[in-house]
Amino acid sequence: MIELAAEPLTKAAFAPFGDVIEMEGRASFPINQGFAERFNDLAIVDVSDDGGTTNVSIIVANPRPMPIALQVMERHPLGSQFFVSLQERDWLIAVCTDPKDVTSYRIFRAIGRQGINYHKGAWHHPLLVFDRDSRFLVVDRKGPGKNLEENWLDGDKSLRITP
Amino acid sequence: MIELAAEPLTKAAFAPFGDVIEMEGRASFPINQGFAERFNDLAIVDVSDDGGTTNVSIIVANPRPMPIALQVMERHPLGSQFFVSLQERDWLIAVCTDPKDVTSYRIFRAIGRQGINYHKGAWHHPLLVFDRDSRFLVVDRKGPGKNLEENWLDGDKSLRITP
Q: Residues 82 to 101 of A: which have CB under 8 A from any B CB?
């Protein structure tokens, strides 16, 4: 059994896997006659391969048993996929560059105001949340073609997370 | 001075202007090994005209003086534009089919769990919120071309909202 400790989610640390969707550290400009401020261009939506289009969804997630054991890594070879908490809740993100290489795994703890956008092909675990009925806005790809690869993990060598 | 009363936001009433992004009344299916439920395909993102691509933004809006007087109607002829509250806050939506025709205006009150997606070319007012620092996730278009038309309203005949 291997314990993986969560690290804070930052743009630099997450860059190999995708974008962090947040206002922090980003330029903004006033709009709406001065009644609003806009932070533009926070993620690269990349869904048009092989005739894909944009899919806007809400996903409601529930916690897995604690301590959290990673069960399966997945990736979407045809499109990006973003997740933003609709309740400002902290959550966990598990990614890797090679699901068979334990040393390639990274665990990030997002604060409620941080969303993430997995780049096309980035290996990630399904949603890991702390609270019941955690709602996310999700923008990813719909369309023809096989856009899901899964790598199931070996329970005997289960990767566990220390949040 | 003309008073416009807000009505509840429903898919049917809003259909001439765009999509309502919500789980209510939508089909869902289980994902993530049963730990999550997905509500798919809640809005039509339509941003690719004239070389456009998807722009993911956060907009932080502040209330206008009460009673709210509509100031300017705008539309985006080249792309859709969606808004989802990141704090589950109620907000107001003002739309019309012809900004010069007072009888064409509709005011909707969205509950915090309802987002909306303006279809390409739908006339709408800039954000109308009740609380300071109201944050929205926004997905619209970036790219070449003129994607903003404005119609300023005549202050003498100002349209006022009864929330």
A: 82, 84-88
What's the CATH architecture for B2-162?
Sandwich (2.60)
When CB atoms are compared, the residue of A23, A85, A86 closest to B58 is: A23
Q: Identify each DSSP E strand in chain A by its residue range.
A: 2-8, 18-21, 29-31, 36-39, 53-61, 72-75, 81-85, 91-96, 105-110, 115-118, 123-124, 128-129, 134-142, 149-152, 159-162
Q: Which residues of B touch A63 (CB under 8 A)?
A: 35
Residue by residue, pLDDT tens for chain A (163 residues) are 788 999 999 999 999 999 999 999 999 999 999 999 999 999 999 999 999 999 999 999 999 998 899 999 999 999 999 999 999 999 999 999 999 999 999 999 999 999 999 999 999 999 999 999 999 999 999 999 999 999 999 765 678 888 7
Instruction: Specify the pTM.
Output: 0.96
Minimal Cβ distance to B45: which of A38, A54, A84: A54
ipTM of this model? 0.95
Would you kindly state where each structural domain of chain A is located, as residue ranges?
2-162
